[in-house]
Design brief:
The chain is mainly α. The chain has one domain: Four Helix Bundle (Hemerythrin (Met), subunit A), CATH 1.20.120. Helices cover about 60% and strands about 5% of the residues. It is built from six helices and two strands. A two-stranded antiparallel ribbon has the order 1-2. α1 packs antiparallel against α2 and α4 runs antiparallel to α5. The longest helix has 25 residues. It starts with a helix and ends in an 8-residue tail after the last helix. The structure holds S-adenosyl-L-homocysteine. S-adenosyl-L-homocysteine binds next to β2, α4 and α5.
């Protein structure tokens, strides 16, 4: 019974975060790209992340993955629901703060501004933090070895592969300003 309730709650939160993403990324093509750092491996991981986000939808609407269910107490599911809510909020705030400076692949846009306020005041990668929180929440809400972990297994490696190149790119573009910004912020956990 709780299993189907968690499926419904997960799907509602998934819809909410999809709306936030759609609204946040709708206008990004308006600016021209002046520096492009895309790599094949990053694009492959973007696609894998997409699959990892969609596997739970198969789980919600069919029983094909039910063979991989396992037991966890319900309160863990509710912790996941709250965590997912926080991830939705964080993604929303990040898109508001980043505005047109968002890019799906590593790139610098024409007129790119360094954002250091809002949620960026505390961490340099709030969007990646939000994705990792979402992926952890997915595992806590969906007690299934495949649908629970399908996003986490891709989004953590992608973060680890991408974060150094992104910071190198930002240093190249913004120099001392970004170096100072790095000193007062954490990557995905605020600096004390
Ligand atoms: N890593 C950030 C942004 C993800 S989107 C986060 O997790 O929130 C990736 C793009 O954002 C990069 O290509 C870069 O152009 C841009 N970006 C990253 N940090 C930025 C910042 N502080 N200000 C402006 N643009 C930034």
């Amino acid at each position: 019974m709780f299993n189907s309730l968690f499926k419904i709650v997960y799907f509602v939160e998934f819809l909410l975060i999809s709306v936030v993403r759609k609204a946040g990324t709708a206008k990004y093509r308006e600016l021209k790209t002046i520096l492009d750092r895309k790599t094949l491996i990053d694009i492959v991981f973007l696609a894998l992340n997409g699959i990892g986000m969609l596997i739970p939808i198969v789980y919600v609407f069919s029983s094909v993955l039910d063979f991989a269910n396992y037991y966890l107490p319900n309160w863990i599911g509710w912790v996941g629901v709250i965590l997912f809510g926080f991830a939705i909020w964080l993604l929303w705030r990040t898109h508001v703060d980043l505005g047109k400076n968002w890019t799906p692949i590593l790139a610098i846009r024409d007129g790119h501004k360094l954002v250091t306020e809002g949620v960026f005041k505390y961490i340099r990668h709030p969007m990646y933090a939000s994705h990792i929180l979402w992926a952890i929440a997915q595992a806590l809400i969906l007690h299934n070895w495949i649908a629970g972990y399908s996003f986490l297994v891709f989004c953590v490696p992608q973060y680890l592969l991408r974060v150094n190149s992104e910071e190198d790119m930002m240093l190249e573009q913004f120099g001392e300003e970004y170096r100072e910004y790095m000193q007062r912020t954490g990557r995905i956990i605020p600096r004390l």
